[in-house]
Design a protein that fits this description.
Cytochrome p450; two-stranded antiparallel sheet
């Protein structure tokens, strides 16, 4: 794919929904223009019903600048306002984000406790479960003879893996799938028809998923099994353990962020292989040889997360561009 630079730097509006509806080649061309001419550009925030439009944001389009911000969390905070462009309403904090909207020391504490749950034995079990889930989902599609790839494979696989890993009952899979779609597709009228209902719908879906996991955590404290929920709630660092609410918030993070990113990467990967059959043929010629780099390239190509916000904690500069606090 060759980027097509059909927009001037002045015409590029990253907050405009119609920009993201342009062909991929034109969007790639727009970012090339920004990297070449205005690598640090200021934009107005999008208008979202029910939310207050903020003061705007700087967009970093060069790798070195993104790396600089990512490596200086004391100067560029994840906790102030959340990780989306528009400020996260305070009531969202109870259900959404978990460790991705935290700075140290809260982030380090939660990460240490959660990491205790990912023992070598647990990781081996997860790997086996991934292979089993993939086999089952593909077999079901083969039996049916056709499928909607996004719904039946790309969405089903990560959701099943996460639910199995956490110990969610199979009878609750559909419930989790539906609530997750509301969180991921809140701007899509298929999931939330009324734009003014987006915030209440998000809060309700987040609350219901968090409560499901918190209830499971309380049950696993008394009757632990070999699932990740049991491992996490019994993990202890410096005398501290996860609260039920923290388990709930972490589960929402897993089924939303972990689900969406994997779903998008798998979907984009399949489309790329269909669009470029020579690459598919190359991969199939020696699967084991090309799989590691193919997976990395699909994630790079798909970019399942297209932006991540940080907020300046004081006046500073990035590559000579002054950036005000906030």
């Amino acid at each position: 794919m060759q980027p097509r630079q059909v927009l001037s730097a002045d015409q590029i509006q990253l907050s405009a929904f119609d920009f993201w509806g342009r062909p991929l080649e034109e969007r790639e061309g727009a970012f090339k223009t920004l990297r070449d001419e205005r690598p640090i550009s200021f934009f107005k925030e999008p208008d979202v019903p029910g939310l207050t439009t903020g003061p705007g944001y700087w967009s970093l389009t060069r790798h070195a600048d993104v790396l600089h911000v990512s490596r200086n969390p004391e100067l560029f905070s994840s906790a102030r306002g959340g990780v989306n462009v528009i400020d996260q309403p305070p009531e969202f904090g109870e259900f959404f984000g978990s460790m991705i909207v935290m700075d140290d020391p809260r982030h380090a504490r939660l990460r240490r406790i959660v990491s205790r749950g990912f023992t070598p034995g647990m990781l081996r079990q997860v790997e086996a479960n991934v292979e089993k889930a993939a086999d089952t989902i593909i077999d079901d599609v083969i039996d049916k003879g056709s499928c909607d790839f996004v719904t039946d494979i790309a969405a089903a696989l990560p959701l099943k893996i996460i639910c199995d890993m956490m110990g969610i009952a199979k009878s609750d899979f559909r419930f989790v799938f539906d609530r997750t779609n509301i969180i991921l597709g809140a701007g899509d009228p298929e999931y939330v028809p009324d734009p003014l209902s987006v915030i209440p719908a998000l809060l309700q879906a987040g609350s219901e998923l968090s409560n499901l996991a918190a209830d499971l955590a309380r049950f696993r404290r008394e009757k632990p099994t070999d699932d990740l929920t049991s491992a996490m709630i019994h993990a202890e660092v410096d005398g501290e353990r996860l609260t039920d609410a923290e388990v709930g918030s972490f589960f929402v993070l897993l089924v939303a962020a972990g689900n969406e990113t994997t779903r998008n990467a798998i979907s984009h990967g399949m489309k790329a292989l269909c669009d470029y059959p020579d690459q598919k043929k190359l991969w199939m010629s020696n699967f084991e040889r090309y799989a590691p780099t193919a997976v990395e390239e699909i994630v790079r190509w798909a970019s399942p997360v297209i932006h991540f916000r940080r907020t300046a904690t004081r006046d500073t500069e990035i590559s000579g561009q002054p950036i005000r606090e906030g």
